[in-house]
């Protein structure tokens, strides 16, 4: 019996190690010059890593311009210190789901992480200029709250960890969780002041959500949740006036 348990333990450890594969974004052709559009390269990397069972996609120092990206199961995005994912301001480069637009989006995914000391930057002022141009030309006629892209959107996802990265300068809400389970935000600065109604953390039908060591500085409310949502912990998470979110 001990021999069988030992073999099972080795197999479990080997399987875990197989999933813990590190990938460098540059190996997929990603360029950190702040001008090259990396959308296809980054998405191809995320898709490939997920298809192989999971792993970590590492971004090192530089500005990685990209359009909307879709998160996939078992993939960790590690934005190392000095790495910035910069939203391409074109209105049509954001992901459209359920009548809204998003920069980073995940739907029906699990075991997803975005970690590190880097930044996800929404470029709100540039995005607003592009949207206003489309509105003035009569091309975009939707209500403003549906065309302002949310920085990070999760729909029906579970076991998600957002740790360390800065979420900054969103055109719409910073983070939106819809029908999600077991999601944690920790050790972060969340800042968005360019739009009067830009909210920080928006929960709808989500449970098992925790916030720890957050500084939330947004033009709109720091935290909005409906009656169906459940936060299991809010620790050391404050707004600029020192009040808890």
Description:
Helices cover 20% and strands 41% of the residues. The protein has one domain (22-235): Pectate Lyase C-like (3 Solenoid). Residues 1-19 have low confidence and may be disordered. With 245 residues, the protein is α/β, with parallel strands linked by helices. Helix 2 links the parallel strand 1 (22-24) and strand 2 (55-59). The strands form two sheets. Strands 1, 2, 3, 5, 6, 9, 10, 12, 13, 15, 17 and 19 form a twelve-stranded parallel sheet that branches. Strands 4, 7, 8, 11, 14, 16 and 18 form a seven-stranded mixed sheet that branches. The termini are far apart. The longest helix has 18 residues, at 2-19. It is globular. It holds the Pfam family Glyco_hydro_28. Residues 1-20 form the signal peptide. InterPro entries: GH28_Enzymes, Glyco_hydro_28, Pectin_lyas_fold, Pectin_lyase_fold/virulence. Belongs to the glycosyl hydrolase 28 family.
Tally of separate helices: 4
CATH architecture descriptor text: 3 Solenoid
Structural class: alpha/beta
Proportion of helical residues:
10-25%
The parts where pLDDT drops under 50 for at least 5 residues are 1-19
Query: What integer is the average pLDDT?
Result: 90
CATH H level: which superfamily?
A: Single-stranded right-handed beta-helix, Pectin lyase-like
Looking at the structure, the CATH topology is Pectate Lyase C-like
Pfam families: Glyco_hydro_28
InterPro entries: GH28_Enzymes, Glyco_hydro_28, Pectin_lyas_fold, Pectin_lyase_fold/virulence
Keywords: Glycosidase, Hydrolase, Signal
Family: Belongs to the glycosyl hydrolase 28 family.
């Amino acid at each position: 019996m001990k021999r069988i348990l030992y073999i099972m333990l080795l197999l479990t450890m080997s399987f875990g190690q197989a999933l813990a594969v590190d990938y460098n974004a540059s190996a997929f052709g990603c360029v950190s010059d702040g001008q090259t559009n990396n959308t296809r390269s980054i998405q191809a990397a995320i898709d490939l890593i997920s298809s192989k069972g999971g792993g970590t996609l590492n971004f090192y120092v530089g500005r990685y311009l990209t359009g909307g990206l879709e998160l996939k199961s078992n993939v960790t995005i590690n934005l190392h210190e000095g790495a910035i994912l910069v939203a391409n301001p074109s209105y049509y480069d954001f992901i459209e789901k359920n009548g809204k637009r998003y920069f980073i989006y995940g739907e029906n995914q699990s075991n997803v992480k975005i970690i590190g000391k880097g930044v996800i930057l929404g470029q709100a002022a540039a995005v607003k200029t592009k949207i206003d141009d489309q509105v003035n030309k009569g091309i975009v006629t939707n209500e403003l709250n549906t065309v302002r892209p949310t920085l990070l959107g999760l729909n029906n996802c579970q076991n998600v960890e957002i740790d360390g990265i800065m979420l900054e300068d969103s055109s719409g809400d910073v983070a939106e969780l819809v029908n999600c389970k077991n999601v944690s935000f920790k050790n972060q600065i969340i800042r968005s002041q360019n739009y009067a109604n830009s909210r920080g953390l928006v929960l709808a039908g989500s449970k098992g959500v925790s916030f720890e060591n957050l500084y939330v500085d947004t033009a709109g409310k720091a935290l909005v949740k409906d009656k169906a949502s459940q936060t299991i912990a809010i620790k050391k998470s404050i707004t600029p006036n020192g009040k808890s979110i």
